[in-house]
Design brief:
The structure holds 3 protein chains of 3 kinds. Chain A is mainly α. Chain A has 12 helices and no strands. In chain C, strands 1-2 form a two-stranded antiparallel sheet. Classes of the chains: A mainly alpha, B alpha/beta, C mainly alpha.
Chain lengths: ~280, ~425, ~325
């Protein structure tokens, strides 16, 4: 017993050490956000500010278009994630549960699209969107994000659905319902964690995306949070590091909150299908 | 049940179609809207000047609005290229003066020669700035403002080292630097004159001061000139000055860190940079900060300074060229220029020049080769790399200069 | 109400499978196509033309001049030829492959180690560590780069300070961005740091699915921990590991933002190019879109080759039904 608890304590120490090292950059960002500018630039770093200030947070919030960009990011990301999940789920069901010609091709396409370097597609995509008058619109960005997230989502959801034990599905059949009916009533709840896990991934990818948002959106009132952040560094004049760190902290908060809420689900969800391939 | 299948599928298809072709958006370009791209510097530095120009324009053209969209220096050209491909360019765009040639050569801008006389003070535009907006004898860019480089220094630190007044020659400045280093031995990593290792804007000033140049034309082709005797003399002078004066990283650029941040922490007795550096020297040294013009190696003269600046141009696909020119006229009026001058910028015409240190430094200046592939030299960091190699001692000045020169020759002559 | 299908199942009880499939061939034939139609529709509407354009552009000379006039000049395979004859290209490929191997290796190994650690610690430490990983995962890339740059900067970076304080050496004003190796090592650290949470949490979840009985049975049989891991745990983790590895290869080979921003635009030279930076510099900065498109296609081919083995395994794993 005691040998085991000694070993466990040993692991706990290692765990805490790993935590400190991993989280250090996050800690440094938050700590810098509270330091007065003189301390931020000082030659000798201080761990916790002697004179913490919230001035940087005030500066960040008052920088033009902060709330607009948060609103835009939330709208874009929520819509993009919701639509992608529905579309991806349907396609994943088709891939996992049906045999049809072209299935292999579809799978290969889903993987292949993920291999395309995004940079090479920026200009042609811009031209396409300009043709549909979707440049400088939220819907244009939403569509781009949906396309970016779909292949991975289809692929992952297929894995989850494959992982659902066949017995449950067949039990539903005997019940007298069709395949699709069985899905809706019995399998959907089982796949829910997988959906949550995939949606979290889609959320983070979309929230953090920069290049397409930058190129597609001109009007500052339509920009997303990542673009808004870039303005701290885009000027050739004074870069306010304290304010940048404060702004970064603020923009990371929604993601962290969302994450902590669904965190449990992810762990369960990722395994449900993943282990069974 | 089959109906249910079809219903579900139809719903999904509908959703997909909505997502893919949502062109019901009311975001069409308004008929009477002028789109202007200015850099973020204007938003934070002189928003009142922008507002005044917009007000004047809207007064002169009833029913028109001006939409100013602020850009970052880092990616504004990528965005511009995207709009050129998509056919929805802004009506006015601010371009860095080193960025102009590439786009003028490609035919990206409308010819503004016929409007030239309507622009304020166009007869006495600063030669350097005006040249950056001219191509094939035609005017494509209107000078917006300029900037030069000066030395910002701490009078208290200089007094402590028993230095009475600013140096009149490079040799004297070097001697002062040694004095400042001795007087501040206790401060670890102290720079008498903080200069970033790859600050090519400053380093090339030495090259031009000694009569060299970055590149010149020979029989219609560009030839790199950094390996000439004069250029090498200049580079050697820079290396010697750096070694005495600066403890900055030999590979860092002039923005990382910002020199005034080092200054405000007491890490430097002087810094080289634009005149507006004095804004950000921190509370501790604000009262003891002054500026002077960087001296040449020839006593009594100013070292040629890089004349940075911006031009305003009208992209060719714009359908409102005449109106765009009118907005530019409002934005570069004499009043507007005076306002910019008050904020520490150099105005665009010689008759507006004052006697601030900033403007005095602009009297002797140099500029980059007017080659359409010049931006490729900048983006490829050829000069920065050369300076880093020289300062780190990896290559001798001669070797580094020769290699960079060959590189520049091939890049500038690229198709 | 009776169901035609239900009746079929009941009546054909001895051989249900065959009948169901027969019906499926006719009646259910259109369902899967309807299900994938939205995805195909969206991706087709948005990506079909750009991908087509990408291929066309790679066969054209399309610089700023041509872009403004919306008309390219056909040059056939010249773009590809110039890339393949470019020394810089080959050095970059090699450098990127090594970089990818290092990143993927460290990410998977580190993630696995973290997952194993998570299994062995007490509940409160597990929550602490998982929350920490979540915080790291949630940080936007551009923000993370700024923070890392800030921590490692020459003038007053905290990393230099700590290393000096810990007497590991004199790191006062140590320039982490002075050499290619140092730059790319920092980028690797940043990317692995950012990728660990996803891998660790996924593997931890997978580990907790390993049936206890199997592990205990093996231990009772006298197997040492390493044997238990290799023979019992690892096979069960294989599908997940395959997915994670192939994804990591895709992402790490094509990584752009972190590398470009951390190294810094002013430090980028052909000597420290990664493939995506090479694409950006040669394609976009020089406004040579024809060449950029050709580079994109070459990158696609290379990545497909690198991940082929893993992807094929993944596709096969799911085919058993």
């Amino acid at each position: 017993m005691s040998a085991r608890s000694a070993r466990r304590t040993g692991w706990n120490v290692v765990g805490v050490a790993v935590f400190v090292v991993m989280v250090f950059p996050v800690f440094w960002m938050i700590s810098t956000a509270f330091k007065p500018t003189d301390e931020v630039n000082s030659q000798t770093p201080t761990w916790f500010s002697g004179h913490p200030t919230v001035q940087h947070f005030a500066d960040a919030i008052h920088k033009p278009f902060f709330w607009d960009s948060v609103k835009n990011s939330v709208i874009i990301v929520l819509i993009a994630v919701a639509i992608s999940m529905v579309l991806a789920f349907l396609a994943a069901v088709a891939l996992a549960k049906y045999r049809f010609t072209g299935r292999k091709l579809f799978i290969v396409l889903m993987i292949g699209i993920q291999m395309l370097p995004g940079a090479g597609l920026i200009i042609p995509l811009y031209v396409v969107l300009a043709r549909y008058h979707q440049v400088d619109t939220l819907t244009g960005v939403i569509v781009v994000y949906i396309s970016a997230v779909l292949p991975f989502s289809v692929w992952t959801l297929r894995g989850f659905i494959l992982g659902i034990p066949k017995e449950l599905e067949e039990a539903a059949m005997v019940d007298g319902s069709t395949r699709l009916g069985a899905f809706a009533r019995i399998l959907l709840p089982l796949v829910a964690p997988g959906l949550v896990a995939t949606s979290v991934f889609a959320f983070i990818t979309s929230w953090n995306e920069y290049i397409f948002a930058r190129i597609l959106l001109n009007d500052q009132s339509k920009q997303t949070v990542t673009v808004w952040l870039s303005y701290f560094l885009g000027t050739s004049r004074n870069t306010d590091w304290g304010a940048l760190m404060a702004a970064s902290t603020l923009t990371a908060i929604p993601v962290v909150v969302f994450f902590l809420l669904v965190q449990r689900r992810i762990a369960f969800g990722l395994t449900a299908g993943a282990v069974k391939g | 049940m089959r109906l249910r299948v079809v219903a579900v599928a139809a719903m999904a298809v509908l959703l997909g179609l909505v997502a893919a072709t949502a062109s019901a958006s009311p975001q069409r370009a308004q008929a009477n809207k002028l789109t202007v791209w200015l850099q973020v510097d204007a938003q934070s530095g002189w928003p009142d000047v922008v507002a005044a120009a917009n007000a004047q324009f809207q007064k002169d053209h009833a029913g028109w609005t001006v939409d100013v969209q602020y850009q970052n220096w880092g990616d504004h050209l990528q965005k511009f290229d995207a709009t050129l491909a998509g056919g929805n360019t802004p009506d006015v765009i601010e371009m860095g003066n080193t960025e102009m040639v590439k786009y003028m050569a490609a035919g990206a801008f409308s010819d503004l020669s016929s409007f030239k006389s309507s622009f304020a003070n166009s007869g006495s535009w600063l030669k350097g700035l005006a040249a950056s907006g001219t191509y094939g004898g035609k005017t494509y860019g209107v000078p917006y403002y300029a900037g030069s480089r000066v030395v910002t220094y701490r009078t208290d630190a200089w007094n402590k080292a028993k230095i009475k007044k600013p140096p009149s020659s490079l040799a004297q400045f070097t001697a002062y630097a040694k004095k400042l280093a001795a007087a501040n031995k206790s401060v670890k990593g102290f720079s008498p004159v903080y200069i970033a290792g790859t600050d090519w804007y400053f380093a090339m000033s030495f090259v031009y001061d000694y009569g060299g140049s970055i590149a010149k034309t020979q029989g219609g082709k560009w030839v790199g000139n950094l390996d000439s005797k004069q250029s090498i003399a200049g580079l050697t002078a820079f290396k010697n000055f750096f070694n005495v004066a600066s403890k900055a990283s030999k590979t860092s650029d002039e923005n990382h860190p910002a020199p005034y941040d080092v200054y405000s922490q007491g890490g430097a007795a002087s810094i080289i940079g634009p005149g507006w550096f004095s804004c950000c020297v921190g509370t501790k040294y604000k009262g003891v900060t002054a500026q002077f013009v960087m001296p040449s190696h020839t006593a009594g003269q100013a070292m040629p300074g890089f004349l940075g600046g911006s031009d305003l141009a009208v992209p060719a696909p714009s359908k409102n060229a005449a109106l765009a020119a009118d907005w530019i006229k409002d934005f570069t009026s004499t009043d507007a220029q005076r306002a910019l001058q008050a904020k520490g910028n150099i105005p665009n015409a010689t008759n507006l020049l004052g006697t601030s240190v900033n403007e005095r430094a602009a009297t002797r200046s140099w500029f980059v080769p007017a080659a359409k592939h010049w931006v490729d030299v900048e983006n490829g960091n050829i000069l920065r790399n050369m300076l880093a190699q020289i300062l780190k001692g990896k290559l001798t000045v001669k070797q580094a200069a020769a290699s960079a020169s060959d590189n520049i020759t091939s890049v500038l002559n690229g198709s | 109400m009776t169901h035609p299908d239900g009746m079929a199942v009941a009546a054909e009880a001895p051989r249900p499978r065959r009948r169901r499939l027969t019906r499926a061939a006719i009646g259910r034939g259109t369902v899967p196509y309807l299900l994938i139609l939205p995805v195909v529709g969206v991706l087709g509407a948005l990506l079909a033309y750009p991908i087509y354009r990408l291929v066309i552009l790679s066969l054209q000379k399309y610089t700023l001049f041509e872009l403004i006039r919306h008309k390219g000049v056909w040059v056939g395979l010249d773009n590809f030829s110039s890339i393949l004859h470019d020394q810089v290209f080959w050095h970059t490929v090699l450098r990127t492959v090594i970089f990818t191997v290092a990143n993927v290796g460290l990410t998977i190994a580190g993630g696995l180690a973290l997952a194993l650690l998570l299994v062995r610690v007490s509940g409160w430490v597990r929550i602490l560590l998982t929350s920490g990983l979540v915080l790291v995962w949630a940080m936007p890339q551009v923000v993370a780069v700024q923070v890392w740059y800030w921590m490692t900067n020459y003038q007053n970076g905290v990393v230099n300070y700590v290393l000096t304080q810990l007497h590991i050496g004199d790191f006062f004003q140590h320039d982490w961005y002075a050499s290619t190796f140092s730059q790319l090592s920092l980028v690797t650290l940043l990317i692995v740091w950012g990728a660990l949470p996803f891998v660790a949490i996924t593997l931890y979840a997978a580990l907790s699915q390993v049936p206890r009985e199997l592990v205990e049975a093996a231990e009772i049989d006298g197997a040492r921990p390493r044997r238990v891991f290799l023979d019992v745990t690892l096979p069960i983790l294989t599908p997940v590991l395959l997915i994670l590895t192939s994804l990591s290869i895709l992402w790490d080979f094509g990584v752009f933002t972190q590398a470009y921003l951390l190294i810094g635009p002013s430090h980028i030279t052909p000597g420290n190019y990664l493939m995506s930076i090479y694409l950006f510099q040669e394609g976009f900065q020089k406004a040579d879109y024809g060449k950029g498109s050709a580079i994109s296609i070459v990158m696609l081919v290379i990545v497909a080759a690198l991940s082929f083995f893993y992807v094929r395994k993944m596709v096969r794993v799911g085919e058993v039904e």
